Amino acid sequence: MKFDNERASAWAERFDASRAEGTAGEERAAGVMAEEFARIGLRAETRVVFGSRFPHQVLPVLGWSGLGLGITLAAYFSDRDAPGLLGVMAWVGAMAGWGVATLPGLRFGHGWPPRATSRNVHAERATDGSPPARVVFRTPLDGVVLRSPEVPREASSVNIGALLGCYLLWLLAGWIYEHDVGLPVPGILWILVLVHLFPYMKTARHPGLRDNRTGLAVLLELARTWPRRADARIEAHFVAVGGQGLDGAGSRALDETIRAEWPVKPTLVIDLSAPGVGKGLILAARGHADLAGSAAADLWIPHRPARRHAWTTWTRPVTPLDDHVVWLAGDEAFAQTDRGGATAIDPEALGRAAQLATEIALRWARRVATDSAESR
To answer: Taking the model in full, what pTM does it have?
Structure first.
């Protein structure tokens, strides 16, 4: 069957703009997804997932605040000619705060209060036998993450380099002027801290087309049009994951299901975030960037690679499956503003996203089959 752009656009309009975890909008979205999956002949299941708002909403605030406090204390102790150990300890504390604020691998408290629930909606087609490869098409149920996944990996190095450079400059100034420099450098660094804290001070998500209604629509239409000829080679799953505001609770639950419950086999995850918002796509992948890029080029699909790596500050956990994730997003999905008005959905771009996701899955399955044959 052919992907129907107009049908996908109509599906996108069925979802509420506000679908945060635990809300009526999320419950309705999960119901629509399960109902439509069942209507097109797939086995659909809705699972409740549990998570905490602490790692995503509270921990970054504590981390950035700890960074600023640690820098201030380091400056204070040094200006007061206190023992150097106290200054070093304050500086180490500042770096620890920076780490928990910016590095997903250091986040903790997934089970801490405030706890909340969300939902995962999973669908698959019944197939005969056991295909040798598995592809999971995944999209957020409750909206795109609040922060852009295009924050560069190098930003971590830039931030730490800027902090160290300012700290050394401050030490040099103190040596030249015999420590009579006050606290101007920590004050400047507090500006950096407040800039990073600002996104977490916003209490409401901004509704609009960037909330991934298009991702849910593409997932439904992709499930409807998935080629049956591929069933013998690919075990296809279609999953809407909730809990993005719970430090990726839905994604973590899906990862655990793949690793602990499903049979072991090569698995590729194709993640869709707001496709159709913009004419092109942003591509990011750790282990399959060449495959995704060549597929997009061969299909003449407008695209660009993520400016840098897409996993540094994305609000999802770091897992072993990250090396087998291909991430596709609308190229306007993470624009900083609406530029004075709502961003329109491009129906043709919805079809291109589904076409590319299908092509990546088929090419990857052929690669798996080739590698398996050569290893025999």
So the answer is: 0.79
